[in-house]
Amino acid sequence: MKMSNKKMSLLGISRREIILTGDRPTGPLHLGHYVGSLKARVKLQNKYKTYVIIADTQALTDNAAFPEKIRKNIIEVALDYLSVGIDPKVSTIFIQSLVPEIAELTVYFLNLVTLARLERNPTVKDEMKQKGFGGNVPAGFLTYPVSQAADIAAFKADLVPVGEDQLPIIEQTTEIVRKFNKIYQPVLVEPKALVSKTGRLPGTDGKTKMGKSLGNAIYLSDSASVVREKVMKMYTDPKHIHVENPGKVEGNAVFTYLDAFDPDKKMVEELKKQYRQGGLGDVAIKKRLIEVLEKFLTPIRKKRIQFAKNPKAVMKILEEGTKKARIAASQTLAEVRKAMKLDYF
Ligand code: ATP
Ligand code: MG
């Protein structure tokens, strides 16, 4: 028998908490995704009911003319998930566009947010600048936080493990859900963001964020030689020209990556000390980073090669996951329609 959340809490039964996170299939996943979100998903998937969304609809908001790119990257993202250890037996991996209930909820949510509020979202503002839309911002792009709110609310997610750049979007989700619950009936759940210690991994160019659309990423699927090449070209301290000169650790991307990936924290502290004092060259710290990343990426690459041998099986995982996700979202939407008095028959 299915019980509503309200009934369950009246009976003192707590429901199992839900996680929803995901990625846009705009390219394979990178180290930023790992520290920002994948790591937490893998760790928490056995404790929480986990939904992982491959957000193709959202990816189209700034890629409308490139449907092939989105289609191709669905499997790339799925392969990345499986190779870092997202387990389809416990996590439900699904494709956003195949759960039309999310699109329906987006339409209802659009009435609960103002144009001014959309234009104020700092992440969207940054991204609009970065993408150089000029005066031609696609309406779908401006409103993507609303569709993301619908992704989260359709699954009644309590927790959303995301990178720091997504915080303003989760905040907007909470506002929309609160408004919905107040105007209609309290059927939706206010989510909380779960941000990792690293928060936001900078790009290899030292810019604030590693991003798949920014050309500054080290991908989980990059070969050893590509990783080596990218690290050797990485941004460090532009003023650190001679080995013997003191160098800056803050804002130095190589140290940020070492902090995020080197399990030997003591060694990292020692390297920082030496670098600050002078006498430690960029090549030395880069070599250390290459070693650390290789240790981390080797097992991921191996698993990826295995899964990639059988793309049909990977697509089957997505198909099954999407079926399950659709059932969950339909249940929420039935409650939503009832709350909005749209349950006519
Ligand atoms: P795009 O450039 O196409 O927007 P992206 O690299 O920003 O791609 P998304 O699919 O938009 O990746 O983001 C998926 C998730 O990964 C989000 O939770 C986001 O916060 C997180 N994430 C992406 N890049 C980073 C990063 N550099 N550091 C930490 N988290 C990140
Ligand atoms: Mg992004």
What does this structure look like?
- It is a single chain.
- This protein has 345 residues and is mainly alpha-helical.
- The chain has 15 helices and five strands.
- The strands form two sheets. It has a three-stranded parallel sheet. It has a two-stranded parallel sheet with strand order 4-5.
- Helix 5 packs across helix 9, helix 5 runs parallel beside helix 15 and helix 12 packs across helix 14.
- The protein is globular and about 80 Å long.
- Bound molecules: adenosine-5'-triphosphate (ATP) and magnesium ion (MG).
- Adenosine-5'-triphosphate (ATP) binds next to helix 2.
The proportion of strand residues reads 5-15%
Gyration radius over CA? 22 Å
Bound molecules: adenosine-5'-triphosphate, magnesium ion
Shape: globular
From the N-terminal CA to the C-terminal CA, the straight-line distance is: 23 Å
Mean pLDDT score: 94
Main structural class: mainly alpha
Most strands sheet: 3 strands, parallel
Summed up, the helix count is 15
Biggest sheet strand order reads: 1-2-3
- For the secondary structure, the number of strands is 5
Please give the share of residues in helix. Answer: 40-55%
- Uncertain runs: none
Secondary-structure element pattern, one letter each: HEHEHHEHHHHHEHEHHHHH
